[in-house]
Amino acid sequence: MPQSLRAPGTGVIPAPHVPANPGLRRALVWDAGNSSSLLVARSFVRQGWAVDWMGTPGSPYCASPLWSTRTFVSSFEDPVAEHTLRSHPLHALLVHGDDQVRWILRRWHGLPAGARRHFPAPEALETAMSKQHAMRLARELGIPVLETIVCASRAEVAAAAVQLGARGDVVVKGEGAAAGAAVRSVRAGRWPSDQQWQAVTRHAPTVLVQRRIHGRRFLVTVAYAHGVERAACVHEKVVAAPFAFGPAAFGITRRMDVLHDYAARMFTALQWHGIADIEFRQDVADGRWYFMEINPRVCATLGIEAEAGLDLVGDWARVCAAGEARELPTAPGRRYQDGVRYAWSTRALALLVRRPWNVPAWGLSCLLSQGSDFDVMDGAMRRRAVRTGLWIARHQS
To answer: Which of 15, 29, 316, 322 has a CA between 20 and 30 Å from the CA of residue 43?
Structure first.
């Protein structure tokens, strides 16, 4: 079993506690409670790394045998988090949540160089974290962006719909939230409800309003080393759950050269360094692909790339192992299998219970095969995933 560096709730900052082995590379995974942390660990372990875990006691993945050590933090204000980043060797550092990226940005100049070297420049992170700034960059690079109006009140949202010429719904997007939690659809000309307004303004006082388009949704997941593409894979978000604008429950890899090109423009301009993904949506009315947002951290989509034969995380491990070396190992690029189907277990289960008519015909067989993140979980974690999926189905829509 992995050794815990700190018992939950003790409030004690431990001394650096990493097994003495100067020849062993060590990665630190800052878990955000999704299965991507397990997929990252599996790829690093396969290449001979030791992988240490940091996260909250409530994470369903803290007990995985993949971890060499575990460090529990109670919150983002817990000093153990910063202490760990200062004391760990950090041959690789992987963060899995937007709040963790914000935490890094707030402390950027006080963090050790060993932590900062695993990220792009702070200006790039700030651009990627802001929907508004990222859209401005996309527009400058010739990538289609929906007309957007910034609003500071519910009345302004209703007026924006008229200005946009929207006849059906408009989409109201808040800054600072992930997984579709701060995105709502509102009938054109109507004020958002109190509940909707609270959801979209939770992290920022202004919102972005766009006309709602209908069409396929795609994600490009990438690994970049100082602005140079190492690996990239496109997949279609077949259906999202639990929110209409949330993360994928089922997906299929698709080779889309136009989206590879758009993603390369964005990440090259940002001189990106790390793993990330970028979302686009096609408008059936004009056939164009519109930029939606960037997720500037290790994303929850990693399983589908591995299933399609692209070890994107493994390539990033090789980049980290090379350090500052000028010669990096050969990159896998875009060598992935087209048409691979995949299910993300908790969201897929929630969808099966809540809206079974939205599950694709192949969904259940995919969920019960190797084509899901169940494949990286042991029995206890699978049971936890099932319980979580049932809870989502009951409490979230």
So the answer is: 15
